[in-house]
Specification:
- α3 (about 45-55) runs parallel beside α4 (about 85-95).
- The protein contains 6 helices and 7 strands, in the order βαβααβββαββαα.
- The strands form 2 sheets. It has a 5-stranded parallel sheet with strand order 2-1-3-6-7, with helices on both faces. It has a two-stranded antiparallel sheet with strand order 4-5.
- The protein has helices at about 10-30, 35-40, 45-55, 85-95, 135-150, 155-190; strands at about 5, 35, 60-65, 70, 75, 100-105, 130.
- The radius of gyration is 25 Å and the shape is elongated.
Length: about 200
C-alpha cells in the first residue's frame, strides 16, 4: 500500500492541506497518509518522527502557499535549521527514490532558488501543480488526484485490500465453525448416558 506525506505550514495552507489529506485518505486509507498533527506522537522529538515518516513514504506532497517561507518581522522562518517545514523538505530531498509533488496554493508562484536555503533549493525545480480554492477548488482537486492516481492506481490497492478483508472474514468464519463443532462434540460426549455394570 503506498504511503503519503503532506508537508505544509499551518498558518499558510492549513485548510487546503487538510482537503488534500481527506482526498488521499478516501482512496488510500487514513493510516497511509501522514500529516503532522494526525501522525506525530506526543513525547517524542518531532524532527526524528518527521524523518522516519518521510523515509516510509512513497510520495511527499509539499503545499506551498503565499507565506510558505514563514515571513516574520525577524526574517524568514524557513531560514532557520529548526524550522519544521525546512526539515520536512530537506528530508524529502535526501530520500532516494521517492518523488516530491509541490502544490502551489492560491496562485502562488514557485519560490526562487536564491530565496531559499541551499539545502532545499532543488525543490524549486520540481514539477508543481496548482490548487486554487477560490477559483477552481473541485477541478484542481481532481487534477491533483488524477496526477497521484496515475502514479499509484488506487484500484490495485483497493482490490488487494478487498481480497485481504474477504480472506480474513473467511478465515474467521472457518475458525468459528471449527470451534463450534468441537464444542458440540464435547457437549454430546458429556451428555451420553453412562452405564454402570
Amino acid at each position: 500500500m503506498p504511503k503519503f506525506f503532506i508537508s505544509y505550514r499551518r498558518d499558510d495552507s492549513r485548510i487546503e492541506s487538510w482537503a488534500i489529506y481527506d482526498l488521499l485518505s478516501k482512496y488510500y486509507g487514513k493510516r497511509n497518509v501522514f500529516i503532522d498533527v494526525a501522525g506525530i506522537k506526543a513525547g517524542r522529538d518531532f524532527r526524528s518522527q518527521i524523518t522516519e515518516a518521510i523515509n516510509q513514504c512513497d510520495l511527499i506532497v509539499v503545499m506551498i502557499g503565499k507565506n510558505w517561507e514563514g515571513r516574520t518581522d525577524q526574517g524568514l522562518r524557513i531560514s532557520s535549521p529548526d524550522d519544521f517545514v525546512r526539515i520536512e523538505v530537506e528530508a524529502a530531498l535526501k530520500k532516494d527514490g521517492s518523488p516530491i509533488l509541490p502544490i502551489l496554493v492560491s496562485d502562488r508562484k514557485m519560490p526562487t532558488a536564491e530565496g531559499l536555503p541551499e539545502c532545499i533549493q532543488p525543490i524549486t525545480f520540481q514539477h508543481a501543480l496548482e490548487f486554487r480554492p477560490q477559483l477552481d477548488f473541485e477541478r484542481d482537486k481532481q487534477r491533483i488526484l488524477k496526477e497521484i492516481k496515475e502514479r499509484f492506481p488506487p484500484g490495485i490497492w483497493q482490490r488487494w485490500r478487498g481480497v485481504a478483508v474477504k480472506t480474513m472474514i473467511s478465515t474467521a468464519l472457518i475458525a468459528v465453525l471449527a470451534i463450534s463443532m468441537v464444542l458440540i462434540f464435547l457437549t454430546s460426549q458429556n451428555n451420553e448416558p453412562k452405564f454402570t455394570p
